Amino acid sequence: MTSQTNEVHAEKRKVTVGDFREFVSRTSYLTDCERRGGGWIYVRRKWEQKPDASWDNPYMEQDEEDPVVLVSWHDAVMFANWKSHRESLGQAYRFVPTDTECLVSVDFASAGYRLPTEHEWEAAPSDPLVPGTNSRKSVNAVAQVFPGGLWGEGGWQSDRLEWCWDPGNPAGNQSIVDFSTTGFAQPRICRGGSTVGQNGRQPSRGACDPFAAATTLGFSLVRGDRTPARIRLDD
């Protein structure tokens, strides 16, 4: 099964530290990196997994209006369903346990919030965002130099990657086919601001374990329209 949208509005809805804090405070939610050994930070030109690294302790300066990072694909999906429920919208995601894993399905026509498909992300890309640009210092702030992307092609300090709905391989083709039901543990496409390559600035693209959390990984949400031919990006 495939899904295609005919129109995308060029407005974006980034999810901030403050947004995510409200979610956690109201639900007592524990993120994947808090439950699974910590998150990944990039220090002294290498990745290190820190047991205490989390969205609330990203080892860098952040305030409530910065984009949240150190959140997994799974965390982003759970936030989207919570936000939809809180605003009395239909939840876009449904989960179906099987003998071997959990399947997740998405209703593209739902009025609720969800992660963009890669096609939607490309149609309305975010500007490169620097996570941690304001004055409040986290307890464990360190000087981080961000790579061009987790799967690097050069390097650009302001690059940040965002989770997309699509399962896939970063080496695969970038078609606009999206599966409406997939395995929960499949790698997921991430898209970023840009990297610096031989031909100038180009989009970053990769695929990552959906339970991974790193200082370069955050997310934005799209909100579906009841009309299947349109997808609205919320401001």
Brief account:
Helices cover 15% and strands 26% of the residues. It is α+β, with helices and mostly antiparallel strands and 235 residues long. Strand 9 and strand 10 form a beta hairpin.
Written overview of the protein:
The structure is a single chain. The chain is an alpha+beta fold and about 240 residues long. The chain has 4 helices and 13 strands. It has helices at about 15-25, 30-35, 75-85, 120-125, and strands at about 5-10, 40-45, 45-50, 95, 100-105, 115, 160-165, 180-185, 190-195, 200-210, 215-220, 220-225, 230. The strands form 4 sheets. Strands 1-13-12-6 form a 4-stranded mixed sheet. A 4-stranded mixed sheet has the order 10-9-7-11, with no helix packed on it. It is globular, with a radius of gyration of 17 Å. Mean pLDDT is about 75; it is low at about 1-10, about 125-160, about 195-200 and about 225-235.
Just name the CATH architecture.
Answer: Alpha-Beta Complex
Describe the oligomeric state of these chains in a short phrase: single chain
Number of H/I helices? 4
Shape: globular
Total beta-strand segments: 13
**Which stretches are poorly predicted, pLDDT < 50 over at least 5 residues?**
1-11, 127-158, 195-201, 226-235
Strand arrangement, major sheet: 1-13-12-6
Q: How much strand?
A: 25-35%
Broad CATH class:
Alpha Beta
- On the 0 to 100 scale, the average pLDDT is 74
Structural class: alpha+beta
Largest sheet: 4 strands, mixed
Cα separation of the termini: 29 Å
Q: What is the ordering of alpha helices and beta strands? A: EHHEEHEEEHEEEEEEE
From the 3D structure, determine the CATH topology: paralog of FGE (formylglycine-generating enzyme)
Helical content class:
10-25%
What is the total number of structural domains? 1
